[in-house]
Design goal:
Elements (H helix, E strand, L loop, with lengths): L2 H37 L2 E7 L14 E7 L50 E8 L2 H7 L5 E7 L8 E16 L19 E8 H13 L2 E6 L12 E3 L4
Antiparallel strand pairs: 1-2, 3-6, 4-5, 4-7, 5-6, 5-8
Length: about 240
């Protein structure tokens, strides 16, 4: 085989290799776009950088930033390490676990048990079914937050928006304070204004839910129940 023939064959093989590489890259790109369309783009979530003991005051060295698909990102997990620094763990935390409201303690440092820790916010939301809550729920209780969307804006559904958050206070509401109850048969007397301990991200999430959802309800947890169930959702088609 002459040198000229070998060079020609080499150029043909190189061209074929480049074409195959471009085709493979295109297929990978299409596959990535398809997956991201189903589960969302990666978003930042603060996780434990190592195994952490109960009662640990979190420092920067205890935390790292991870990226997970948006669909699987806990809505109550901070997106910046500074939001979690200074919080205390309520139990052991395995390396790689998200730092959610369920893994940090409810007792703030200092004499005031309702005091906010670094990275926390107190957010007020109008809740439906508040009359019975006022009789049973007390500051310090743990609650889940149930959000129901308006069927007029698409298929209606109810879902657990946040789990295991601390109730800081609950007071009777009025029709002005709790517009979410305006169309309920029980009327505004069943509404209340709840104050919850939340991260900044949770506070933004709940404020948006209050603005656009049909109603928000609190589901009190039994004392000591800190289990997480994930994002449970029931739509109109499931009934």
């Amino acid at each position: 085989m002459s040198a000229r023939t070998r060079r020609r064959r080499g150029l043909v093989l190189l061209t074929l290799a480049l074409a195959c590489g471009a085709l493979a890259a295109s297929e990978v790109g299409d596959r990535v776009s398809e997956v991201e369309g189903r589960i969302g783009v990666p978003v930042p979530v603060v996780v434990a950088a190592r195994d952490i003991e109960p009662g640990t005051e979190l420092s920067r060295a205890d935390l790292r930033l991870s990226h997970v698909p948006q669909r699987f990102a806990p809505p109550d997990a901070p997106t910046d390490r500074d939001q979690a620094i200074g919080l205390h763990t309520a139990g052991p935390v395995a390396a790689g676990s998200p730092i959610t409201a369920g893994v940090v303690g409810t007792t703030a440092s200092g004499d005031d048990p309702g005091a906010l820790r670094r990275g926390e916010r107190a957010v007020e939301i109008a809740v439906a079914g508040g009359a019975s809550l006022i009789e049973t729920a007390v500051p310090g209780a743990r609650v889940d937050v149930l959000v129901s969307t308006d069927p007029g804006d698409g298929p209606g559904s109810s879902f657990v928006a946040l789990e295991d958050v601390e109730l800081l206070g609950l007071s009777p509401g009025s029709s002005a304070e709790a517009p979410l109850d305006a169309d309920l048969s029980a009327g505004a007397a069943t509404s209340a204004v709840a104050t919850l301990r939340a991260t900044l991200r949770q506070a933004v999430y709940l404020t948006a839910a209050q603005s656009y959802a049909r109603e928000i309800r609190l589901l009190p947890r039994p004392p000591g129940d800190r289990r997480r169930i994930g994002r449970a959702t029931v739509g109109a088609n499931d009934l």
